[in-house]
Amino acid sequence: MPQLNPNPWFFIMLVSWLIFSLIIQPKLLSFIPTNHPSNKTHSTTKAAPWTWPWT
What InterPro entries would the database entry show (predicted)? Predict the structure, then answer.
């Protein structure tokens, strides 16, 4: 069963995670979000009762 042999796949997984963690992730985290969630105001909506036509 060659699927259980971790020899080539473990190295590929390790290298891909290192590339993601050391190169891609810092570049993605450097972006500043344009709509920060803490700046939004909370608006409450008043729920009106629904009038059913068959009651």
Answer: ATP8_metazoa, ATPase_protein_8
DSSP SS3 for 43: coil
Give the pLDDT of residue 14.
93
Written as one string, the DSSP assignment of 1-55 is -GGG--HHHHHHHHHHHHHIIIIIHHHHHTSPPSS-GGGPPP---PPPPP--TT-
Segments in the chain below pLDDT 70: 1-3, 34-42, 55
Distances (CA, A) of 15 to 12, 22, 28, 38: 5, 10, 19, 36
